[in-house]
Design goal:
The protein is α+β, with helices and mostly antiparallel strands. It is built from six helices and six strands; from the N terminus they run E-H-E-E-H-H-H-E-H-E-H-E.
């Protein structure tokens, strides 16, 4: 079984774009070196929406990554940077990375929404559009260290 982790974040202002991207790059560098990471992808969607998807050998290995300094530092800022933040985890048999439409559907039906300082109406109602623009998708493959 493969453990899947997905997130959706919406930045509340363009002023957070550069700091977010710097933090995102640090997290991405850590991700691909992490034990148990299989593959992943991220998407910068329209209107400052960011989607991530990662596949792992186990939930425990994903949690180790989640506890990394780079990821922790970024997550501490999410409540200030974002007005929408949701995540979902699931297990699957398939070795193929899920499509964004699948991630969206699972997140709406089973996703968890992060507590934020200034949540949007979409966040409060737990509703948001599926990804609108996939031209900025970036794929990650595991690398050995």
């Amino acid at each position: 079984m493969i453990f899947i982790s997905a997130t959706r974040l919406h930045l509340k202002s363009y002023r957070f774009f550069i700091p977010f991207m710097i933090a995102n790059q640090k997290v991405a560098k850590t991700l691909v070196k992490n034990k148990g990471f299989l593959q992943g992808k991220e998407l910068i969607d329209k209107q400052l929406v960011f989607w991530t998807l990662s596949m792992w050998n186990s939930e425990a290995e994903m949690r180790t990554f989640r506890g990394s300094e780079e990821h922790r530092n970024a997550m501490m800022k999410i409540s200030n940077w974002c007005n929408e933040a949701a995540y979902i985890h699931w297990m699957q048999e398939e070795q193929n990375i899920p499509e964004w439409k699948t991630v969206h559907e699972k997140m709406l039906n089973e996703g968890l929404f992060t507590k934020l300082k200034h949540p949007s109406n979409n966040h409060l109602s737990k509703k948001f559009a599926e990804p609108q623009w996939t031209k900025t998708e970036r794929v990650f493959k595991a690398i050995s260290v």
